[in-house]
Amino acid sequence: MSQLPTGTPQSRGGVRDHLANERTYLANLRTAIALVSFGITINRFSLFLLEKQLLSRAQFILLDHAESLGIVMVFAGMALLMWGAVHFAIISNQIDTGTFRPSKRAIGVITILVLALSAISLYWLFQR
Asked: pLDDT at position 64, please?
């Protein structure tokens, strides 16, 4: 079995590490596509219901917010896609140079962000 010379990116980072990084990026990509698709669906469906006037006045006001929610979801998907691509490049470089350290701060920030958005969604859902 031949050994790679020390100092090459493959000997420092390893193929498995790069493939794991790629899988993480692809998971971010799938999630971004889902957010954009669902956001567009919410937006278009709310506009359809508004145009057909199939709702009461109270439902109409809530649906107006749903249109905005769809737009926000599209932008969130786009932001996730951009963040995923930048994160992939940074981690790939860190794997190659042997300086990778997991970011505990990023996990905390993402967790707090998702919890906050979930709480806002629950409030919006049950405010009727």
From this structure: 67
Cβ-count burial 80-117 (b if 16+ within 10 Å, e if not): bbeebeebbeebbeebbeeebeeeeeeeeeeeeeeeee
CA dihedral 13, 27, 116, 90 (to 10 degrees): 30
pTM here is 0.72
Residue 77 identity (one-letter amino acid): G
Tokens coding 24 = 């993480």
Distance of CA 20 to the CA centre of its chain: 18
Q: How many angstroms separate the Cα of 44 from the Cα of each of 38, 49, 61, 71?
A: 10, 9, 16, 10
Q: Are 81 and 37 in contact (CB under 8 A)?
A: no
Which segments in the chain show pLDDT lower than 50? 1-5
